[in-house]
């Protein structure tokens, strides 16, 4: 026997026994007038009706009427009534009991209805919140059945999407192959809401076109709530798809913008060395240059300017590779003084132009890719020289800060405007005043930042216009 049946039987037994008890007590011990008995019975019936079912209250009303008639209305101990006034009293008693019971059942139904609606509203609210948590279409679709199970307390939820022809499910019962086929069919042809036993299905739409179907098992929901769940899911899918499209087109626009900036910057920077090479080569080809010394000077120009072009092209390639995460770095314990001397050697023109004072305070090895770290330092040294007067000193320091080594390159050059200090690490950003005067591409610091961040460090600048700049980057220690 299930528990609901046991509860029902207990209630019925209790109600009848209690009725008999009231009648017995009034009849045996408390000798009161029939009106008091009638009011007590009425009160009892109303309490039953407000607590339990209407059916029970009606049956107890009829039994109470019979008992009242039999035991309290003269002639007692018979079901006949002598005084016609008592007929009226009996009839009033029965009708009051029935009307009261009905009213209290109605009030209970309405309260239950309101509670149900509130539960459903809470469910819809919780579901909407879950649906707004992600803007990624794939993650959203994947999470819908789980969110529906969690918020509706269903045993299982299945989402089938027509376009993707995929089924997503969550909960304790998984679909059989036959059920899958059936669900697909219903998603294509079905309409609105369908119920079979405790299984609920709602067809999802985009406008009037079917988009899929949501199936729930073991959830108690009204048609309105189910329809609202379908709408929330459809709207969330539309929203996530729209956001993804926007993000995609923004990304495409940004990459277009960067591409054209890159082309502008490279063509601009290529023009000067190419003009020099062309000039030197033409001069060499004409027979005007006779002296070996002059020929040598022109060849040196060609050599240096080709190096410059080479550097430029490799920088562009490197940046593209860093962007696409195609570079391979090998992190191993590296001595910072080796990196420093290697970098100074690579950009030897810097030392020839500006004296470099190296102050290494601690010699802890760092965990780094030697070649890439050398590149960062080379870039900073070149900038320090490019943006300072000839002969002004560059100070290079390295010191341990926590579990990192902080390497600084300080110059006494032109400095950087405060509002530009956060921009100079962006790709292709060049201070407008240098655009013409000092050659550069705006790629160096951006590349340096990518490399330092790939090492797990950071790079920053402190600068005052007219006084100089200090660029500092940190790299994790090897230990
Ligand atoms: P580039 O030097 O090729 O222009 P970078 O990315 O290395 O590109 O630098 C970006 C900008 O940052 C430079 O154009 C310059 O305005 C500024 N900058 C970089 N280093 C210094 C420095 N040491 N002193 C002053 N300004 C600097």
Would you give an account of this structure?
- The chain has 479 residues and is of the alpha+beta class.
- The protein has helices at 3-28, 34-51, 54-72, 84-132, 137-152, 177-189, 223-285, 292-323, 336-346, 348-353, 370-386, 434-437, 444-454, and strands spanning 156-161, 166-171, 193-196, 199-206, 209-217, 332-334, 356-360, 366-368, 394-401, 404-411, 459-464, 468-476.
- The strands form three sheets. A five-stranded antiparallel sheet has the order 2-1-5-4-3, with helices on both faces. It has a five-stranded mixed sheet with strand order 7-9-10-12-11.
- Helix 4 packs parallel to helix 7 (223-285).
- The longest helix is centred in the middle third of the chain and has 63 residues, at 223-285.
- The protein starts with a helix and ends with a strand.
- 28% of the residues are buried.
- Adenosine-5'-diphosphate binds at residues 379, 383-384, 387, 411, 413-416, 424, 429-431, 434, 440-446, 469.
How does the SSE layout of this entry go?
Blueprint: H1 3-28, H2 34-51, H3 54-72, H4 84-132, H5 137-152, E1 156-161, E2 166-171, H6 177-189, E3 193-196, E4 199-206, E5 209-217, H7 223-285, H8 292-323, E6 332-334, H9 336-346, H10 348-353, E7 356-360, E8 366-368, H11 370-386, E9 394-401, E10 404-411, H12 434-437, H13 444-454, E11 459-464, E12 468-476
Parallel strand pairs: 7-9
Antiparallel strand pairs: 1-2, 1-5, 3-4, 4-5, 6-8, 9-10, 10-12, 11-12
This protein binds adenosine-5'-diphosphate (ADP).
In short:
The protein is built from 13 helices and 12 strands. By secondary structure, the chain is of the alpha+beta class.
